[in-house]
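Example S7 (structure tokens).
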């Protein structure tokens, strides 16, 4: 009986720690007048820590705030290992733009301003850009680079896994025209809302990592993005290995990205 009681106590303790480590928090967006759900992952020893760096981790098309913790349940352990906070917002299918055609879709403002301010005000974070990084998969890979490059006052490092780093070859896919308009009649808007055209903004202090599998339908645009970074003499880490556009690849890729960001935070 004592052994059973001890086992139950241990199980309850573990569940309490897990609940404290992984939480879903609603944050108000003034720009969109809505509340948005976000998964917040804290290191297990959060209560004894301060000045913690934060990784903003973005989901892909068709996903939500819970996608990453479902894909990689060990994120809570990794947050503890590296001593970081991980924040996963619900970006819906926004591509993390402030849409020029839909004033109700302002996910760039939400993630880069409203959410970061909320996290800094409610958690024990390092409240400067050297304590913030952003990355994601697929649509979220586009978002990680789009937001990281355009908001270098907020994020010191950014990345992409299997990201849509040039959206223009895919004008009919993934609801992008809902946010940008039809490509045929809004070409300039599409040109101005794709990551590969934003490299003129990159400052030497921004740390960048990109990762894409050789069997991915985004491989060609990632290779061209890498080549343009080389041409512009912009420092970055570029990883490619056999793999497709799927969960198996991202479960592996996030390990490399987390190590990259940990090294950035601690350098």
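Recovered sequence:
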């Amino acid at each position: 009986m004592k052994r059973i009681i001890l086992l139950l106590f241990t199980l309850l303790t573990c569940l309490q720690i897990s609940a404290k480590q992984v939480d879903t928090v609603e944050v108000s967006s003034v720009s969109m007048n809505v509340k948005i759900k976000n998964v917040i992952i804290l290191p297990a020893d959060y209560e004894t820590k301060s000045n913690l760096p934060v990784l903003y981790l973005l989901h892909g098309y068709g996903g939500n705030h819970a996608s990453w913790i479902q894909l990689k349940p060990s994120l809570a352990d990794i947050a503890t290992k590296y001593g970081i906070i991980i924040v996963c917002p619900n970006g819906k299918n926004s591509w993390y733009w402030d849409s020029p055609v839909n004033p109700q879709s302002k996910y760039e403002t939400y993630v880069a301003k409203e959410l970061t301010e909320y996290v800094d005000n409610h958690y024990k974070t390092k409240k400067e850009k050297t304590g913030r990084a952003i990355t994601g998969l697929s649509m979220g890979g586009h978002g990680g680079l789009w937001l990281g490059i355009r908001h270098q006052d907020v994020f010191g490092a950014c990345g992409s896994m299997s990201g849509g780093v040039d959206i223009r070859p895919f004008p009919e896919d993934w609801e992008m025209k809902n946010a940008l308009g039809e490509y045929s009649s809004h070409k300039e808007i599409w040109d101005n809302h794709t990551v590969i055209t934003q490299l003129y903004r990159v400052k030497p202090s921004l740390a960048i990592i990109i990762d894409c599998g050789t069997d991915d339908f985004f491989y060609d645009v990632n290779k061209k993005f890498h080549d343009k970074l080389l041409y512009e003499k912009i420092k970055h880490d570029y990883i490619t290995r056999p793999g497709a556009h799927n969960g198996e690849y991202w479960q592996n890729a996030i390990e490399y990205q987390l190590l990259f960001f940990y090294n950035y935070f601690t350098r």
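Notes on this example. The first helix runs from residue 2 to 21.
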